[in-house]
Please model this.
Amino acid sequence: MKRLDKYIIGKFLGTFIFSIVLIMSIAVIFDLTEKLDNFFENQVSMREIILDYYLNFIPYYMNMFSPLFIFISVIFFTSKLAGDSEIIAILASGVSYHRFMWPYFVSALLLFVFSFWMTGYVIPPASEKMLTFQDKYIEHFSRENARNVQMEVEPGTILYIESFQKRTNLGYRASLEHFDGKKLTMRITADRIHYDSAYNWHFDKFVRRDFDGMRETLTRGTRLDTIIPVLPKELFYTAENAQMMPNPELKQYIEIQRKRGSGNVQAFETEWWKRWASPIGAFIMTLLGVTMSSKKVRGGMGKNLGVGLTLSALYILFSTVSTTFSVNGVLSPFMSVWLPNFMFLAIGIVLYIRVSR
Model:
């Protein structure tokens, strides 16, 4: 690594850290101003505000807007290099444009590793703590009861619970059906269902029907113990829970839901691909930023920053809108998440070819 590489990497990372610290400081001040009344009304201690909320608030939003910060940082310091004719001097000394790009992508690689680690392993538990704090002191959105839950717990085995209480692990009016193809072979109905531990469930006041062709065997009882491979917390899972799962847990949950044929697995698959697509955005934003700002133009840094902010806003907007295509079933989770990256990568490659000439 030459002195020039260290110089560019230092400028890149230094500008990125400075910009993200500045923006997040402003974000914290605005958020604190907005929620100050809630903190006073609920008598939240300073320790809880700092450790349980803002210590988790900062990495969550920092990672969310990191592509924007990367893009702005690259445009800012590269435009300054171009404006001071430093890039002209670098290229005139015999350094090719491809070699000039190398330290940029080393920096992008470091940010990619950092972002992937944050997204997959740090932010999920931080999001859970932040949402728990918000649910307790700001807005109450967690559910204590689940209603009309129906899922395929195993191939051909359908569980239905009309009402389930999280606090007591107790459900009412439940049924468990087993199908052989399209043929119903067994059905259990019960007034109550209770979770014990390690996938052990109890049916209270149950009626069991076993079907063998036209023959039916009826069994009644007060209690029936059975193994059902589902945990009570899975009855309450929504799309928001995907953000709280570290990568290994999220991948395992997706595989289980696929086997069960669950209908809400698309939201979790979308979150899984976002954890790859968002860090890759560091390379795409770096490519776009350098190719747009490495040439000295009339209007200077202001023009480059204006165009850069517009493209950043379009990238974030397109990334947000495209994920709705997955929810509506128009695109697969993979395509809905990666489509903005593919499009902006194509733009970056075209600009790179033009500028490198």
Observations:
- The radius of gyration is 27 Å.
- The chain has two domains: 3-139+266-356, 145-234.
